[in-house]
Amino acid sequence: MINFSSGLIFLLGALAALGAAAIDMYLPSLPSIESELGGVGGSAQFTLSSFFIGLGLGQLFYGPISDSLGRRKVLVVGLLIYCLGSLFCFFAGTMMELVAARFFQALGAAAGGVIARAMVRDVFSGKKVIPKWITSFGIEWLYRLIKEPKRMWRRYLFGNTYFLFKFLTQKYK
Fold first, then answer.
1. What whole-number distance in Å separates Cα of residue 79 and Cα of residue 110?
2. Within 10 Å of residue 86's Cβ, how many Cβ atoms?
């Protein structure tokens, strides 16, 4: 069994979070982007829609392609597409150019999430992988919903939403 170093764990977590980071850092700037690029009311939101469409389409294709061609080659190509898409976003002069650039940026970002998870599954199998790696990929809450559904639903249905948020933020024991 391969031992993952802390540097590799950080790298895989960063690759998995690439798409989410590209969204979260971008959202506060939507109004200023719209005014800078001369968009009309709400047109900057199309850049977010195109990003989600690109992210979804990329996730459909990177898994099978990386299985057949190898993880490293596909990851490098995906990161190259992400970097080129980011560069095109920087130089976009109109809203439509930015929409197209965000689509290609998302196509590249999808490679990080898909291939990082595939690399973990290549090394680990079964229940060993879930508790150890799920927190690295920022989906700990999903594991909680699967692990303890009765407890969560009981609190959600018969309590208020405060209990749901408290449940989702509890630490593993």
1. 9
2. 16
pTM: 0.71
Provide, for the chain, the percentages of residues in helix, strand and coil under a 3-state DSSP scheme, each rounded to the nearest 5.
Answer: 80, 0, 20
For residue 142, the tally of other CB atoms under 10 A from its CB is 12
Annotated domain spans of the chain: 6-133, 139-173
Reported as a single tens digit per residue, the pLDDT across 86-117 is 999 989 889 999 999 999 999 999 999 899 88
**If you count them, how many residues does the chain have?**
173
Q: What is the DSSP string of 14-78?
A: HHHTHHHHHHHTTGGGHHHHHHHTT--TTTTHHHHHHHHHHHHHHHHHHHHHHHHH-HHHHHHHH
